[in-house]
Amino acid sequence: MRMTKLSVILAGGMAICAGTALAGNGIDVSGAHYNLNLIGKRDCASLPDNSNGRRIQVLLNGGDNAQDLDGTLALEMSKKNKIFLVQGDTFDVLDPTACDGALFQLPGPGADGTFCYSIWARALGKPDGYANMTTCAVDTLGTADPADDVVVCSLATIPLDASTRPQKFTNVTKELTTITFVSSTTGQQTTVNIFDPALYDYFWNYDNHGLRLAQLRFYGGACPQ
Question: pTM of whole model > 0.85?
Answer without folding.
Answer: yes
